[in-house]
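RECORD TYPE: protein structure
NAME: FAD-binding FR-type domain-containing protein
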Amino acid sequence: MAVTLKQSLLAKTTTPFRLVGMEWLNAQTMSLKLQPEQPYPYRAGQYLTLPLPSSQKTMPFSIASRPSKERLDQNSDHIEIQVGGVMPDSELAVDIRQFRTQWLNQQPLYLGQAAGEAYFRDTGNSVIIVAGGSGFSYAKSIVYEALSLPIAVDITLYWGAKTIADLYEHNTMVALANQHPHFHYVAVVEKLPQGNSCSGNAVELHQGQLLDIFFANQDLQAHQDIYICGRYQMVQSAYRKMVETNPELASRIYSDALPPVHKR
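PREDICTED:
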């Protein structure tokens, strides 16, 4: 079969993937499992750009899995991304339906290289992660990567959303916190049903705004690496207040919503 110039260029710049799984995590968030057909290098905390079939656009999605094959959460080497904000009549909902068709027909997806400079650094410092909403997918990759380190470091995850239902992997994080004494999980919701409680003494559950809870509870020290993902405004606000609180942290705060360290 003849290979066109377009196909040849595509093969050189992209990696073919098979969609091997789809799962609703809550009413508006879909997990896509992608299996690369050749080695696909990436670092925990990076993202890939997914072509959306309906809108003919591309969107960046954080990779929720960690790169090592020696995984704590799964045995396969597939890559997970989490698509949030899938409203019933939105273009994303149409895209999800088309992805399902591709899945059933085993049609390949062609994705470019992983990107992003806010990837996990193994520095030996304690790790703090602040995630708003579906920014959790970024946090998830870093949590599992940090837990895999041969020498344990303290890891604290602050995950904020409107309701408990929006913390779509809450139970998984609770289980991890109970399993790993050096992993601390702080869940923050704007609306907490009366009488709702969280099992497991390693977990804190707060009602309020994510950053308010973070700054009220977290002692910011120089020997910490901080990773932030969420709405652009939230990341900017968090960074400014963190640096005001402790200027030594300026070069240890990572987010792709921030300019490069040497330009801050």
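COMMENT: Confidence is low (pLDDT under 50) at residues 1-12, 70-75.
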